[in-house]
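Example 420.
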Amino acid sequence: MSTFKAPKGTYDLLPPDSAVYLAVREAISAPLRRAGYGYAETPGFENVELFSRGVGESTDIVTKEMYTLTTKGGDELALRPEGTASVLRAALEANLHKAGNLPVKLWYSGSYYRYERPQAGRYRHFSQVGAEAIGAEDPALDAELIILAVDAYRSLGLRNFRLLLNSLGDQECRPVYRAALQEFLRGLDLDEDTRRRIEINPLRVLDDKREAVQKQLTGAPMMRDHLCASCTAYHEQVRELLTAAGVVFEDDTKLVRGLDYYTRTTFEFVHDGLGSQSAVGGGGRYDGLSEMIGGPSLPSVGWALGVDRTVLALRAEGVELALPAATQVYAVPLGEEARRVLFGVVTELRRAGVAADFSYGGRGLKGAMKSANRSRARIALVAGERDLAEGVIQLKDLGSGEQRAVPAGEITAAVRAALG
Ligand code: ATP
Ligand code: MG
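Predicted structure in complex with magnesium ion:
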């Protein structure tokens, strides 16, 4: 134990659990890579204004959850609380949208920071894999991203997740709806904070998790009934494409999500085994964001899936991922000469693509074999003076316990054959 602990609301990823996180990131990104999304990486911090403008002044993320700092040079920065604003900023800065090949499709994976009340599934440092398709307004693109997320969850073996789907309308129909909703909300019995929210971002009141608020929302005007003709047609196409792809969804007219920039298609993936932190991922269309951060009009759509909660969901369903063995072969040298020879064999095996490890520290047979078993290797290679004099290495199958002598020059081939 050291004097220090991981900061409140954070945790460390260490073996063996860390392998599951890597596998989840890999599984989420694999469908994206197959669909033409290129990898993007942006700084862990940005100018604070990118988020206050891009995510929205009235959101919890900006008002309560952002880690901000002033640098020695006087810059106002924030640790990134989400990925979309940064990735769009990067794409605009590099003029990717001018290369003549829209949409620009990017995926990313990394750490995000929010000053939240830590609890199961809610941390101050967490990890997301995200995707953005920038610069095209096409229902097939919205559907593509949703299908890719569903395929990612399915490839992990998750079953108990649900897709909630909604449309938030556009610049034409949303203002009309917003006004109607405001009028309804102003008539309710709500606290000061919520009353203020009615004026700034009334749609967010629909998202209020408190029962006392939810009860009063029965009969509230719904976006669904206010969508303009083009938004209705767009949404209908998204739904048809999803259905054709075998993706099941639930229409959730109250789904607005926590970020201000969403338009039209909005969705969230929830998992029923996670208690109150049930959202494992979410996203939507954000046609106005580019202009909000000083760029041209670039209708776009994207999502971010939470890696931490996906791992919790796997646990909740009892899914064991088939992870590649960390070590397939474990070498146990007995004596100096054997150390030299087996170290060479281990190096050669690794170069041949076999995961091999070595008993370091000059330990005796018993201790070394214990480590071999603990490493969960399938094969142990043992050599002592007598073996070397005979030009052989003992190849032991740690599953069956069977052991045979293999000529030293054939050991790599024999190991590969034994591993199948
Ligand atoms: P919530 O409603 O649970 O606060 P959110 O709407 O703030 O979620 P998004 O900003 O949409 O979440 O982020 C996408 C995903 O990232 C979430 O669905 C969730 O899986 C994950 N996520 C968000 N905040 C956290 C956090 N503090 N700890 C762990 N995972 C998180
Ligand atoms: Mg949140």
